Each structure stands twice: as C-alpha cells, then as structure tokens.
Amino acid sequence: MNKKTIFLFAVLIAITCAFLSCAAMARIADVSAQVAGAVGLIDPNVANAISQSARAIGTAAEEITPEQEYYIGRAVAANILTSYRLWDRDPALTAYLNHICMAIAINSPRPDIFNGYRVAILDSDEINAFATSGGHILVTRGLIAAANTEDALAGVIAHEIAHIQLQHSIKSIKSSRITQAILVTGTAAVGVAAGMDVNQLTDVFNESVGEIVLTLVNNGYSRDQEFEADTTAMSLMASAGYNPSGLLDMLGALNAVSSVSGGFNRTHPTPDQRITNAVKTVNTFDVPNTSFIRLARFTAITR
After folding, report:
1. 286 by DSSP, 3-state: which?
2. For residue 283, what are the CA distances in angstroms to 155, 159, 247?
3. Among 108, 119, 271, 286, which one is most buried in terms of CB atoms within 10 A?
4. Residues 154-210: pLDDT tens digits?
5. For the structural domain made of 67-168+217-302, what CATH number should be given?
6. What is the pLDDT of residue 195?
7. Are residues 155 and 249 in contact, defined by beta-carbon separation less than 8 angstroms?
C-alpha cells in the first residue's frame, strides 16, 4: 500500500471524526486502524501506532483537569487582551463587579474553580463581554453603561459564569484540538512524526487557543449554547437572590442599541431571540423582586 493511500485513509478518519464527539472520534480512529491493519490495508505496525495514539487522544480529551482549564483560559484571556486594554481607572467599580460575581459564584453548583472567578473591565465603548475557562470575565465599559440596575449587571455576569460552568469554551477546544491531533497522527502513519506521544500532542492542542479566541471575539458560540447560558444564568441569579428578570432587562437594553455594529451584536443571537427564549423559563423561578434595595449602591458606583 503506497503512502498516498495511507495518508488518504488517515484524512478520511479525521474528516469523519470532525462531526462526532471526542470519545466517538477516538473510538472510530482506533477501530478503523485495527481493521485496516487486520485486512492488510496498511502495515500492522502503522495500524498499531494509529490505534494507540487514538486511544491516548480520547483519554486526553475527556480528562481535562481544572488546572488545565485554568491555564487554557488564561492563555485565551491574554490573547483577548492583545485587542482590548484593561480599564483600571475606577477600582471601586471593579471591586463592585467582583462582589456581584462572588455572590453568584458562591451560590452556584461550581463555586470553586482552580484559581477562582474574577471580573475585569475592558476600556472600550463597545457593548460586549467575554469569559474564559480560567474564570476570567471581561466586561466592556460600554456594556456596564448600558445596564440600568444591579440585577441587569448580575444577568451579564451570570451569563458569563454560565459559559464557564457549562464548559462551552473547553468543549470547543476539545473538538478542534482532537481533529488536529488525528490529522497529525495520520501524518505519523507515513513516517513524518512516528512515535508521537500524548505530551507531543499537547503542543498541537495548544494551537487551538487561537481558535477559541476567534470564537469568542469574532464568531461567537452557537445559538443553542447562548440560549443555554441565558437559562443557566437565570438559575444562578435566583440562587444568589437576584431577580432573574434582570437578565431580560439587560437584553431589553441591548435590544435598544441592537443597530450598533460589532460587540455582542456580532457574536450573539439578537436580543429579541434571546428574550423569546428566556421568557419561557423566567417565571419558573420564585424569587421576590428586591432589586430596589440595590438601586442606591448601583447608582452611586456606576453613575
């Protein structure tokens, strides 16, 4: 069997796996390699190398630790900060946002992550926010200015915490990095990188950080993931004593400026779409409306 045929076989595995879960990807690559070796399609030694690598890839994908989440997220945050500058001219406002964040996180199903949750302000009039798996939540000045209550701000922060706790960015990393790893393993089958182990594959995985930045800054998560984050955010708000309708208030404020290009308008479903989804469940949370209690401090700190 010539090298071209072997390489095409490896690429076929990678393309097929690109549409499947991480575990399924690893299993298909493993089984396909074993079958190909057994019937003589490829050299048995090459088949064994692909099979072992596929199993290792599957294990690496499904066992990302909290520490690994943190360092991946920190790298993503560092990349985002090459496009936005941190705004530190109002420490009291930054502390206030972190107070809201801690109130939500400590009452959530995942109150403790490797290095904790933290909020920083981006020096931009753009209306946007980002969250990384490391617990970094980045909110623009423009988004803060668009909020009319503390509960509305809590809706933004809870939405970003939801992305972290639902591991949306990690799931995206798993998908892209494993596809790349299988392609590299396929190259190994023709002798270019024979003997590659999991540690070497980690170098390939790290390249996907840039792809996650592209997702967060340019493309956005899928509509279903954004809807899931909104629904989860309302649950997180209710657990912390915030009125879940604060998220709807925030979405209404965003809808008022939805004609503005860029920012959330580029990376999220429209506010109308999100409101339509959120109203399906907002009344399922039995939380008294105490937002008026927080109005004075919100006004004092943000205005």
Report:
1. coil
2. 15, 18, 12
3. 119
4. 999 999 999 999 988 877 655 544 445 444 444 444 333 434 455 655 565 556 566
5. 3.30.2010.10
6. 47
7. yes
